[in-house]
Every structure is written in C-alpha cells, then in structure tokens.
C-alpha cells in the first residue's frame, strides 16, 4: 500500500486545475444504461472510483472506451445487457447502487448486490427502495441482493422522500425518464451533481424540470438517444484545494472553480478570515491574517455546508485562534480523522455528532493513517501546515477521489512525494 510523505514548508502559491466531479461522473456513467446509443463524457476525472464504475458497467455488457488518458469516456449499451450487478464490484463502492434505477427502466428487472455498511456510517438503501417502489417496481432482499422487477414497465408517480438522499434522487430521476406518464419527486436533493445529471439526461432527450430545486418533474419518454456531456467541476476537490492557502498562507487560484458550487463553504471561509475572489478562470484564495479565526460548522444537504468537506475544514480549524464546534448531521460516524489529527498535536474532543476543536499555533508532523477518502486529504492538508515530516499511510483511499495530488501540490511549492510499496 502506497504512503505519502509531506514536509511542511510554509506558504504555497500557484495555480491548481480542478478536475471533473467524481460524484457527478459516478451518476452520469450509469445513465448510459438508459439508451442504446453511445454516451460520451468529457472532463471526466481519472480516479480509481471511475475505474470501478467502468468495471461494473463492463460486467453488465456495456462497451466502455477511454480517450485522452481517461478524460473522455465513451460508453455504449446497445448490446444485450446483463441485469446482475455482482457483489465483488458493488462492495468496493456504494455508488454502484446507481445502476439499479437505469437497469430497471431499460430491462424491467435487475439484481443489485446490497452495498455493505461502510466506515462512515450504516448507509442503508431504504430511500432508494421506497422511491423505485413508488414507480411500480417490486423489490425484495434475498441472499444479500436486491431483486427488482416491474409488471409491464415503470409507471409515473408522485413520491416524497423522507430525506433528500443524493443517490435515491439520481436513481428515481433516471428510472422515471423511461416510465409511462409523469413523475414528481418531492424533497429531492439539490446537489450540483444532480443538476449535472439532469442536464445530461436532457441532452439525451429526457423531459425533466426543476433541477436544483426540491421538486423535480419528469415526463416519461419511449426512448433516450446518445449525447456528449462535459462533467461539472468537482466542488469537493475545489473546496479541498481552496483550503491549501487557508492553512499554509500564500495565494492559490483554483481553475474552473465558481462560488455557486461552494457558497456555504465560502461563507465559513470568510468568517475564518479567508478571502475568495471569483476570477475569469476560477477562484483565487488568500488568508487575511497570520492565523485563521475559529468558526462553527454544521454539515447539511446542498446548499448547506457539505459533509464531504467537513474533515478538511477540521484540519484548518485545528490551527485556528479559538474554539470551533463541528456538527456532522449527514453521517453518524464521520470523525475518524480526529484521532489521526490529534497525533499531529491537534486538540479535538468528539462527542456523538459533535467535535470541539481548540486551535493550536502549530501542528507537528507524525505517522498517520488515512481511514476514508476525505479523511485522507484532511491529513495531507494538516501535514502541509505542520512542522516536520508526516507520513500518511493507506492512501488508496485518497486515490478514489483525488487525481495527481502530489503533482498538483508540488506545482505550488509543496514538498510531497509518494512512497510506492512493492
Ligand atoms: C452522496 C455522495 C457522498 C456524499 C453524500 C452526502 C456520491 C457518489 N456520493 O452519497 O460523497 O457524502 O452524497 O452528500 O454522490 N440514507 C438512508 N437510506 C437510503 C439512502 C441514504 O438512510 O436509502 C442516509 C445515509 O445513510 C446517509 C444520508 O442518508 O446518512 C445521506 O446519504 P445520501 O444522500 O444517499 O448519500 P449518497 O448518495 O450515498
């Protein structure tokens, strides 16, 4: 397993290009199952999660080809599709569950292994099941698999979700594009990745209104066509790199960034003493004083502060002047980075869904372990600001969601290198 070695060396300056969004791409790729014609995605990120989704689609009978080193992905589902998403692939990544809605809509049946619990929380599938059941699917759990079928195809329906789940919104919307009649989803999630999925489905001929609001209306059509679609900027990668000048000092411009992708996050940065300016090509970020100020953070569905930036924000607040409280409202066990940050001298107390962080003047390098995707990058941020050397082990978590991290940070002056294991 590879590790990453970081030597903290003060302010970082430069320009960082932000990739296409992993979470958008993971929803856009299964959309290919809805059409016999090819779907091409441009601006795709080059990540291990995308390779896992490629493997899953190939196992279902989709032809996938990648150009420009993986930045352009073309998928074709014209052949006979296999309706079974196997455990061996699904267990690697929860987003595998996004093939359920499209397979049901196209084939009328599907078997998708139940994604297991994962480190950050239980993450059940009940909201997905309720949403697809509302469209007329019959779903039962047998031998660890969800067996789903329809009698005579999916039918449009009005459905309100008990919680605005991102994945369940994506599954419902994709399934409803080929259902008979009109479907309305209430309490829908509003994340930019969902908006991006709907823009792509519309290019494929789907009739959908209300993206970005909590009510989405879908008029079912008989078939969808092929399309080419550019993946939206990754707001989580964006937010992560915006924290680099925040924690080390210096000035970094994140190419492709827009404030509307990270509005709630920018408000917290401003309160902490970080300036963000929108330029023609992205967002420029600088720290106003030597030290940031403490701020309280509560994670919420979009447009609130994203749970996927909570670990990275905690790394910043470990160095703040004062005490901050972070409340995690989306996942029940998402503070695993706290004990690792404490190995670097951070003062953090976790109680249930709250973490109280008392800022210290300096973090110190240490050997630490990545426990999940966003936790791993929070340790790298902390290491950039720490005195001495940090070795982050288990960086396969990082590779799921960040492409060429060492390259992007080295270009801004960071001392960071990957130690490859044999
Ligand atoms: C997506 C993102 C993930 C992000 C999360 C919340 C992708 C590929 N992943 O995950 O990075 O952290 O949104 O912004 O886009 N829940 C249920 N029952 C369900 C579904 C969800 O109880 O059927 C719960 C989950 O356990 C969790 C909460 O709802 O506590 C949010 O989950 P959801 O919005 O569905 O997240 P994902 O789509 O899995």
UniProtKB/TrEMBL annotation:
Keyword Cytoplasm found: yes
Subcellular location, record wording: Cytoplasm
The protein's Enzyme Commission number: 2.5.1.7
Binding-site positions, UDP-N-acetyl-alpha-D-glucosamine: 94, 308, 330
A GO molecular-function annotation: UDP-N-acetylglucosamine 1-carboxyvinyltransferase activity
Domain of life of the source: Bacteria
Enzyme class: transferase
Domain Enolpyruvate transferase: 7-409
UniProt KW keywords: Cell cycle, Cell division, Cell shape, Cell wall biogenesis/degradation, Cytoplasm, Peptidoglycan synthesis, Pyruvate, Transferase
2-(S-cysteinyl)pyruvic acid O-phosphothioketal, modified sites: 118
Xref: Gene3D superfamilies: Enolpyruvate transferase domain
Active site residues according to the UniProt entry: 118 (proton donor)
Pathway: Cell wall biogenesis; peptidoglycan biosynthesis
Catalysed reaction equations from the record: phosphoenolpyruvate + UDP-N-acetyl-alpha-D-glucosamine = UDP-N-acetyl-3-O-(1-carboxyvinyl)-alpha-D-glucosamine + phosphate
Binding-site residues for phosphoenolpyruvate, renumbered to this chain: 22-23
Family, per entry: Belongs to the EPSP synthase family. MurA subfamily.
NCBIfam families per the UniProt record, alphabetical: murA (TIGR01072), PRK09369.1 (NF006873)
Role summary: Cell wall formation. Adds enolpyruvyl to UDP-N-acetylglucosamine.
Name this protein carries in UniProt: UDP-N-acetylglucosamine 1-carboxyvinyltransferase
Lineage: Bacteria, Pseudomonadati, Pseudomonadota, Alphaproteobacteria, Rhodobacterales
